[in-house]
Amino acid sequence: MEEAYVRLRCPECDKDWESAPSELPTHDTVYHCPNCHASRRLAVFTRTDHDLQTLKGLQ
């Protein structure tokens, strides 16, 4: 079984990373960039609509 992941990018510092949806809060929760600590709703950090739909579907 393949493990799903969500691609994230910080809108402030442009850091890219991946995380499993089970390790992330819900898409409407305020999330903090691990690099620069910018705070936004997690949905803003998803790189594409597909990543957002994956996050919503697997939580």
TrEMBL record:
Record InterPro entries: DUF7836 (IPR057158)
Descriptive protein name: DUF7836 domain-containing protein
Domain annotation DUF7836: ranges: 1-59
Pfam families for this protein: DUF7836
Organism: Haloarcula salinisoli
Source species, domain of life: Archaea
